Amino acid sequence: MRKPVAVLDYSVDGLSGELISRWLKIPSTVIRITGDEPFPSILPEECKAVIHSGSALSILSETVFMNGAVDFIRKSADSGIPQMGICYGHQLLARAFLGLDGVARCSSVELGWLDVSFLPAWPVAGLSGRMAVWQSHYDCIVRLPAGSVITATNRHTEIQAFFNRDMKLFGTQFHPEFDTQSGNRCFSNDPELFRKNGVSLTETLASGPGFNTGEIIFGHFLKTFFEEE
Fold it and tell me: Which CATH class is domain 5-225?
C-alpha cells in the first residue's frame, strides 16, 4: 500500500484540507488539527509527504498543539519527509526551526487576488514572472532556516515562497488551493474583513488567479522532491 500525503488541516472552519487534497493526484489523507487539542499522534514515516494548511490563527499565538507540531516538523525533516506549508503552515515551518525570531506581524493585511513575482530560483521550470494569487494574511516569515532559497516575492511580503532542498521544505505565503470560484466564495463569506481593512470586495470578486495555482503549485511541490511524480 502506498503511503499517503498527509494534509494537516489547521483551518478554523475545517475546510482547507479538502480544498488542498482535491489537487493531489496521489493518495492523501486529511488530518484535522484544532487550536484547543494536542497535536495528534502521527509518525513521519507513515507519510509520503506532509502539507501544513493555512489558518485564521496567528503564528505568534500559543496553541495547545504548537509544541507537538514543532516536534513533528523537526522529526519529519530529520527523516527526510518532504513538507509543504501554506500561509500559517508556511510560517509554522519557519517557527519550528527558528522560533518566534522567524516570524512577525505584517505592517498591514495582504488581502485579495494579488501579484507575486516568481523568481528564477523557483525549483521547477515553467513558472516565472508576476501573477495573481489568493492572499489573506497578517503574519509573515522574516527569517528562513539555513540553506533556504526565496522563490517568490512582492513588495508587501519579501518571502512569498521558499524551498530548502536539504531539509525538504517548500512553503508559500499565498494559498494555491483556491481557484476563482472557491476563492471568491471564501472572500464573499467575510465582507467585514474587507470593510475594516479598506479593501474593495467588489473589485476583488471581479478578479481571480493568474494561472492554475492548485494544479501547478502542488504538482511542483511533489516534483521538487519526487522526480517520478
Answer: alpha beta
Catalytic residue among 90, 137, 156, 175: 175
Indicate the domain borders of the chain.
Answer: 5-225
C-alpha closest to that of 106 among 69, 57, 58:
58
Q: Which of 47, 52, 87, 140 is catalytic?
A: 87
Give CA separation, 116 vs 45, 86, 122, 152, 178, in Å: 34, 15, 12, 6, 15
Which amino acid, 83?
Answer: Q
- The answer to whether residue 87 is catalytic is yes
Contacts of 161 (CB under 8 A, 6+ apart): 90, 116, 118, 122, 150, 151, 152, 153, 171, 172, 173, 174
Query: What confidence tens digit (pLDDT) does each residue in 3-50 have?
Result: 999 999 999 998 999 999 999 989 999 999 998 899 999 999 999 999
Looking at 47, 137, 156, 177, which residue is catalytic?
177
The pTM for the full model equals 0.96
Q: What is the pLDDT of residues 137-174, one digit of tens each?
A: 999 999 999 999 999 999 999 999 999 999 999 999 99
